[in-house]
Amino acid sequence: MITCFIRYEIDPFKAEAFAEYARAWGQAIPRCGADLIGYYAPHEGSATTAYGVYNIRSLADYEAYRERLRNDPAGRANYEFAKREQFIRREDRIFLRLASAPHGELIKP
To answer: Coiled coil where (predicted)?
Structure first.
């Protein structure tokens, strides 16, 4: 299993457009085969940094998933929405593997 971390630099004056974009991916990404952890928008600190995070089995599965996403009507519409509204200034992707497992039990105070 690998995890894709997408770091976005967004226009701080178009944060609601990014939130709409994130909600759309919340439906399309799982439907197309990736295990979506979530999209995260600025809250405190930087007003321009946002993230998208999902798990996928392998880079080969990632390529097939990306093809399904490109062919998904909602996926295509979301790509076009981002292009039209231009709220994303920069987008970087990195694939990481979990190195800390197994985790201990969460202790609640």
So the answer is: none
- State how far the alpha carbon of 42 is from the alpha carbons of 6, 10, 52, 74, in Å: 14, 9, 12, 24
User: pTM of the entire structure?
Assistant: 0.90
Q: Count the alpha carbons within 13 Å of 10 in the hemisphere toward its beta carbon.
A: 29
Closest CA to 89 of 46, 45, 57, 58: 46
Please state, in angstroms and rounded to a whole number, the distance separating the CA atoms of residues 101 and 109: 22
Residues in the chain: 109
How far is residue 35 CA from its own chain's centroid?
10
**Residue in 76, 37, 69 with CA at minimum distance from that of residue 53:** 37
Residue 79: phi and psi, rounded to 5, are -60, -45
Per-residue pLDDT reduced to its tens digit, 25-59: 999 999 999 999 999 999 998 999 999 999 999 99
